Amino acid sequence: MQIDAALDALSTVLGQRLSRSKSDLDLHGRSETWFPLSPPDAVAYPESTQEVSQIMKICAAHNVPVTGWGTGTSLEGQSLAVSGGVVVDFTRMNKLLAVHQGDMDAVVQPGLTREELNEELRATGLFFPVDPGANASLGGMASTRASGTTAVRYGTMRDNITGLEVVLSDGRIIRTGTRARKTSAGYDLTGLFVGAEGTLGLITELTLRLQGQPEATLAAICAFDTVDDAVRAVIDTIQMGLSMARIELLDTETAKAFNAYAGATMPESPHLMIEFHGSENGVKEMAETFGEIIADHNGHGFDWATRAEDRNALWTMRHNGAYAIFAARPGWKSLVTDVCVPISRLAEAVNDTAADLEQAGIYGPILGHVGDGNFHSVIMFDPDDPEQMKTVKAASERMVDRALAMGGTATGEHGIGMGKLGYMEKEHGDGWQVMGAIKQALDPENLLNPGKMVPPRN
Amino acid sequence: MQIDAALDALSTVLGQRLSRSKSDLDLHGRSETWFPLSPPDAVAYPESTQEVSQIMKICAAHNVPVTGWGTGTSLEGQSLAVSGGVVVDFTRMNKLLAVHQGDMDAVVQPGLTREELNEELRATGLFFPVDPGANASLGGMASTRASGTTAVRYGTMRDNITGLEVVLSDGRIIRTGTRARKTSAGYDLTGLFVGAEGTLGLITELTLRLQGQPEATLAAICAFDTVDDAVRAVIDTIQMGLSMARIELLDTETAKAFNAYAGATMPESPHLMIEFHGSENGVKEMAETFGEIIADHNGHGFDWATRAEDRNALWTMRHNGAYAIFAARPGWKSLVTDVCVPISRLAEAVNDTAADLEQAGIYGPILGHVGDGNFHSVIMFDPDDPEQMKTVKAASERMVDRALAMGGTATGEHGIGMGKLGYMEKEHGDGWQVMGAIKQALDPENLLNPGKMVPPRN
C-alpha cells in the first residue's frame, strides 16, 4: 500500500473533500455495535460517479483498500476499513435523480436515505417500502441486502432494485439491470452486487421499485401470555393467506424496556405489532379475520391504531427497540443476533433462544420480523469483562447452529461484516469458496472492503 | 475433447442410461424454434445428484462439454449442445422430494415439470405460481429465469426460489440459500445460478416458494378498438394499485389466429385477458374497479369467466397462443421476440413494433404479459427463403434497439441461448465482460454449455 502517493493524487482530485482530520477518521472508524475503533487513513467525499471512478483508479494504482460508507448504521461493522486505506463516504451523493410515476420507480444516488426519499415521494402517491428501522442510506441498504418490518409484504432490497450503476475495482463503470420490471438477459449482476457489502464494487446509482401508498392502513398491538401463543398466531395468519404489511414480535423483556425507555404502559408480556395495507374494505376484512386468529391464541388487550399519528407512534416505538434495550444497560455494548428460520420452526427457535440466554445469565431481549421467521436478540454485555464477552459470543454461535440445523440462516438482514464472517463456512460449505472465486474474478487485487465476506486469500 | 474415453467411463457409471441412438441424439438436437439441428455426442440420464457429479467429473477429466436438458421447451436454443459433448437429460430426476406446508415451500428435483408439481400439490391448498405456458421442467425454468402470465402478481423464477443444489464444473456439489424466507449471508449465489442457463453449474435440486390457493378467482376477457386503448387500460389498472394475478394482451392478428386454431369466435380486435385472486369480496371489489377502468378506455364485450372450466379454457387458449400462430403459417419457422420495457413506454413500443412489422411485410402477431411491460411478436418466416430470414432478423434487432433506448431489455423471460447472444454487449456494455469473468472463475475450462451467454474466450 503506497498510501502517501495515493492521498496526494486523491487530494488533487478532491481538494478539501479528502479528509484526514482525526475527528473524521474516528467517526468513520466507529460502528453501531461492539467492534473496536478502526479508523481509515482518509475519508473521501465524492460528488459524482466519475469521481468515484477516479478514486478507485488512483487507489488501484497504489494498492490502497477502498471501503464504502453510507450512514454507518450497519450492525456488523460492514463499513469499517479494517485493513486501512480510504473510506468513500457517499453523503454528498444523495440526490433523487428521477421519479417515473407511470413506471413506479425512482433513480437515486447511494447517499440518499430512505426517509429522505419517502419525504420527497410524499406528494406522488408512491413510497419506497423497505424499512430497516434506522434511517439508512439506500446504497448501504442495498449493500447489506437490508429488509426490516415490511419485508413480509414488500420483500427485501433484493426484490426492490431493478438496476444499479457500479464502479468496479479497476474504476470501470457498469450498469446492471434496466428500468423494465423483469429481465432474463444474462447473469443477475444486480442481485450479485446487492448484499455484497462493497466487496465487488461501489454502488453509485440505484433504480428502485416504488409502491402505491395504500388507500387504507390499519395497525394494532396485542398482548399474549406466551411467545409460543404469539408465534402460533403468526403462523396461522400466514397460512390463512392474510397479506400483512408488517408483523412484529416483542418478548416480555422488550416490553419492559419500552415501558422504561419510551414511557409506554404495556403489559409486561409478549406482544405482536401488526399492520395491514389495502382498500378500506380489504383492510377491515383482514382485521376481522386477524381478530379471530388472535382470539384462538389467547391474545388480549387488542388495540387498533387507525389514526396516522397513533400508527407512527407505534412504529417509532418499535424502531427504537434496540435503543430502548441499549438504554437498559448504560455503558454496556450490544451484540445483535439475526437468525432467520423456516416459519414452522420459529416458536421452537425463539423458545430455545430465550431458554439458552436465561441459562447463560445473559440479558438479551428478543424482537423480530416474525412473518419472515427472522428475529433478533439484542444481547447486552459489559465490554470490560472479557469472560462475559466470551459467554455472549458462545451463545450467539449456538443460536446460529440451531438456526442452520433448522434449515435457516445466520443472518436474515444484517449481513456478514466482521461479526458473522466466522459462520460463513458453516452455512455455505464449498459455496463459500465459490464466493471467494467470484471475489477473485472481480477484485483480483483485493482492494474492495478487504477482510470481509470471503475466505482469506492464501 | 477426448469423447470416446469419456463415453466409455460414462457407460460404466450409467449403463443403458447413456444413450447414443440417432433418434435420441436428434431429439436432443432440436429446439422449439428456428435453430438448426445440433445433436450432441451422447445423452446421459442421471438418477441422482451423485451421478450428475460423477458425469461432470468424467467430462471434466476428458474436456467434454456438458449441457443440461429439461423438457426442451426453451425458445432460444438454450439446451442445444452447439459444441457437441454430453447432454444431461434430467427426465429421471423428477421427484417432489418434500412439501413443507407450514413453511409454504417445496423441495423438488429439476426434471419435475410445473404441471406435475401443481398436480401433486392440489390437495395441500398450495400451488406454485410461475407459469410460462409450456409445461416446462422446474430446473429449466430456473435456468432461463422464466416467468409468464402470473409474474405481475407472483414474480419470476428469481423471486420464487429460496435455495438450490448445484453441481459445479469440477463435480463439487454445493447448496445455495436456505429454507428461510430471506438471508443476508453473503453473495446471492441462488440468484446467480437462476438465469445462468447451465453455464455456471447444473441445478440438481430446488427449494421453491409456494402460494396459498386463492379463496376466489375471477377471470375475464375484453375487447378494445385499438392496442393503445388496451395498453392504457393496463397502465391505469397498475397505477390504481389493483393486484392482478394475470393481465395479458392479444392483438388483432392473434385474435384471428385463435379463431382459426381454437375455434374461438372472438371479435377480430385487440383484447385483454385478466385474472384476479383474493377473497370473495376482494375479487368482486377489484372486478368492479377494473370494469370502470375498461369503460374509460372503450373496452367492450366484457366476459367474466367465474367457473373453473371457463377459466381453464381461457388460459388454455392463451397458452396455445404461439401454437395458434405457428398453425397460421404451416411449414414456416418462428422467431419469438421478447422485449420488456418500462410500462410507461409500452403502448409506444407495441405500436412501433406493429408498424415496423407491417412495413417490413412480416407476419408477427403480438401477445404479451403487459402488466410487466413484456410482449412477444411471434414472427413467422419461410426457412427456405434466406432473404426473408434476413428481413426477420433485422426487424427483431430493431425491436431490441427500441427497447434498449426506452430503458428496457432484449429479453423479459425467454433468456439468451443462441438467439440473443448478439444483443448482450449492446445491452450490458462492460457488464458483459463482468459476466465473462464470473464464468471464467466458476468454469475455467469452459465445459458448461459452451458457446452461450458470455463473450467468447480469446
TrEMBL record, chains A, B:
GO molecular function annotation: D-lactate dehydrogenase (cytochrome) activity; D-lactate dehydrogenase (NAD+) activity; FAD binding
Protein name as annotated: D-lactate dehydrogenase (cytochrome)
Alphabetical keyword list: FAD, Flavoprotein, Oxidoreductase, Transit peptide
Cofactor(s), by name: FAD
Stored PANTHER family: D-LACTATE DEHYDROGENASE, D-LACTATE DEHYDROGENASE, MITOCHONDRIAL-RELATED
Organism taxonomic ancestry: Bacteria, Pseudomonadati, Pseudomonadota, Alphaproteobacteria, Rhodobacterales
UniProt signal peptide: none
Top-level lineage group: Bacteria
Family named by the database record: Belongs to the FAD-binding oxidoreductase/transferase type 4 family.
EC number: 1.1.2.4
Biological process (GO), any one: lactate catabolic process
Domain FAD-binding PCMH-type: 35-213
